[in-house]
Design goal:
This protein has 16 helices and 9 strands. It has a 5-stranded mixed β-sheet, sandwiched between helices. The chain is globular. With about 400 residues, it is of the alpha+beta class. The chain folds into 2 domains: about 180 residues, 2-Layer Sandwich (Cytochrome Bc1 Complex, Chain A, domain 1), CATH 3.30.830.10; about 180 residues, Metalloenzyme, LuxS/M16 peptidase-like (Cytochrome Bc1 Complex, Chain A, domain 1, 2-Layer Sandwich), CATH 3.30.830.10.
């Protein structure tokens, strides 16, 4: 098998105010036909080869991939580059996909997690493009048409922004030669995928509440940071989030789920992009237990900021991250994605050195990193709570 993953270093953070949601909307139209492959032909061609295709959009990137038997890898590259260079953008498909995205927005607003995270980011990263919803809004989608798509493609879908990763039973030299021929017609325009937005969080704590028809309370509690992508601080916070909320013996899961049953679920995570970062905890629990839940989370946040993690506990977190990294790279599609994303943000050397970087991080460095990156005076707390019932 082989995975062919085409990354374009552009996403929501690169959109103009008048085109919010265009990156994701265009992703929906990527496989919707070219002059030589009308609507539906690309999907059928990939399936005929025994493969599948898909795509995804985030704040800093959009990517399109095909996984299929390695014998057909060059044909997969042709399909992706044909779509990239020659997407037809039929008006009827634009309108059809507009409705599909509007339905996605509606479903996300109905989801407690989806609504919570969109509102959380709008508060945490206020004043930056990272506060915008990736899907856009019903209002922004209504004004995006074929001319806007073509203008956006001209600005952002340029060779400087495009990164292709191919993994599997392939000949690297043949793949490289094929890629050079396929991409030759694409004109350069000097754009790049690095976010132009510098985020310097200021001391300000925030809290908000959303009422929905739910049975339990959902919480996101975190600290927005400047971008730590590719730094040793990213490694340090990744280890600390594992200590805090990854696995049954992690501090929050042990106290809030295993020992007390106060939460039905709790976890900690680090979210790192080219312009911003976030260290956060998410939890779900019965509203009557809220004070106890918040007290424990606050205690553990303070504890991890105030004292170094014992070496044995720190080493366990290191081992978990190394195992997760190894398991993740077993799948060709995951490996291609990691390589293409790292190339897009000039981090290839660092991703190759990931195990060494994990092993070299110490509890004292991790403590210094979280004290500097995640002070208490920048915390944001968002809640989805059950609607009051008579």
């Amino acid at each position: 098998m082989a995975a062919v993953d085409l990354w374009v270093a552009t996403g929501t953070s690169h959109e103009e105010d008048s085109e919010v949601g265009i990156s994701h909307f265009l992703e929906h139209l990527f496989f919707k036909g070219t002059p030589t492959r009308p609507v539906g032909v690309m999907d059928r061609e990939v399936k005929t080869m025994g493969g599948y295709n898909n795509a995804a959009t985030s704040y800093d990137f959009t990517h399109y991939y095909i996984v299929l038997p390695a014998d057909h890898v060059e044909l997969a590259m042709e399909v992706l580059v044909d779509a990239l260079l020659n997407m037809a953008l039929p008006p009827e498909e634009i309108e059809r996909e507009r409705q599909v995205v509007l339905e996605e927005i509606s479903r996300k607003d109905d989801s407690p997690h989806g609504k919570l995270y969109d509102d959380f980011l709008s508060v945490a990263f206020e004043g930056t493009p990272y506060s915008r919803p990736i899907l856009g809004t019903p209002e922004s989608l209504q004004v995006i048409g074929r001319d806007q798509f073509n203008d956006y493609r001209h600005r952002r879908y340029s060779p400087e922004n495009i990164h292709l990763a191919v993994c599997g039973q392939v000949d690297p030299e043949a793949v490289l030669s094929k890629a050079e021929r396929l991409f030759e017609p694409l004109p350069k325009n000097g754009s790049n995928g690095i976010s132009a937005h510098s985020f310097h969080p200021k001391p300000k704590t925030s809290e908000f509440e959303i009422k929905k028809d739910v049975q339990q309370t959902y919480l996101c509690w975190g600290v927005p940071t400047h971008s730590i992508q590719g730094t040793e601080d990213e490694i340090a916070l990744d280890i600390l989030s594992t200590v805090l909320g990854d696995g049954r013996s992690s501090r929050l899961v042990s106290r809030l789920v295993e020992s007390t049953g106060l939460c039905s679920g709790v976890s900690a995570f680090v979210w790192v992009l080219s312009g911003v970062g976030l260290f956060a905890v998410e939890a779900s629990y019965d509203g009557g237990d809220e004070k106890a839940v918040l007290d424990i989370i606050s205690e553990e946040f303070d504890r991890i900021r105030q004292e170094p993690v014992p070496e044995k506990e720190f080493e366990k977190a290191r081992s978990m991250l190394l195992a997760q990294n190894a398991y993740g790279l077993e799948r060709l599609s995951s490996k291609a994605g990691v390589l293409a994303r790292s190339s897009a943000f000039d981090l290839l050397d660092l991703v190759v050195a990931y195990p060494e970087r994990i092993r070299s991080c110490t509890p004292s460095h991790a403590l210094e990193a979280i004290q500097r990156c995640c002070p208490r005076d920048r915390e944001v707390r968002g809640f989805v709570r059950p609607e009051n019932r008579s």
